[in-house]
Amino acid sequence: MQTIQLPEARRTGGMPLMEALAARRSSRDFIAGRDLDLQTLSNLLWAAWGINRTKGRTAPSSHNRQEISLYVFLKNGVYRYDPVAHALDQLFEEDMRAATGTQPFVGVAPVEIVLISDTTKITGKTPQGVIESTYADTGFICQNIYLFCASEGLATVARALIPKEELAARLGLPEGHIITLVQTVGYPAPRD
């Protein structure tokens, strides 16, 4: 298994916020076979859930529990994003993108980001409170991905239609870890 050290994320530039909000949309049409370059992937992951200050992230989390992990599915394997090292740690050496959903575009786009919550980090809440916290935190990260993609001219869609139990078993997720959403990212296919 390998670790991919990501280049330092570019923290300046991009589209102004109001323009990114105006351009933000879901897209399910991707160019097959066109991968994101390493710098774009680096910027994407930092924007989604990177470290932007001491003990802080680009997206909030309830009581700063930081219970969400990003599993990044690429054609050459499955990786877990390490925000401290700003690196991808390989977990599997196979292309498992198609296992993240059932829609026809799944596995076509170059990147599938699976958001996984370690609910054991959320203490002092009712079971309903745990669910509310983890899905709110997931939403913050997904919106960061949407805004980054709008700014960079990339296509993306957040998806809840996921074979969660099968995928969790395939990943070997421990008790208390739940798949919340998957976000597909790639280059938009030309429109007719």
Can you lay out the helices and strands and say which pair or pack?
Blueprint: E1 3-5, H1 17-23, H2 38-49, E2 51-53, E3 56-57, E4 68-74, E5 77-82, E6 87-92, E7 111-118, H3 127-152, E8 155-159, H4 164-171, E9 177-186
Antiparallel strand pairs: 1-6, 2-3, 4-5, 4-7, 5-6, 7-9, 8-9
Radius of gyration: 16 Å
- SS class: alpha+beta
What fold name stands as the CATH topology? Answer: NADH Oxidase
Within CATH, the superfamily carries the name NADH Oxidase
Short recap of the structure:
This protein has 192 residues and is α+β, with helices and mostly antiparallel strands. Helix content is 28%, strand content 26%.
Task: List key phrases describing it.
192 residues; two-stranded antiparallel ribbon; 4 helices; 9 strands; 28% helix
Task: Please provide a written account of the structure.
The chain is of the alpha+beta class and 192 residues long. It has a single domain, classed as NADH Oxidase (3-Layer(aba) Sandwich), CATH 3.40.109.10. It is built from four helices and nine strands. The strands form two sheets. It has a seven-stranded antiparallel beta sheet with strand order 1-6-5-4-7-9-8, with helices on both faces. α2 runs antiparallel to α3 (127-152). The termini are far apart. The model has no long low-confidence stretch (mean pLDDT 94).
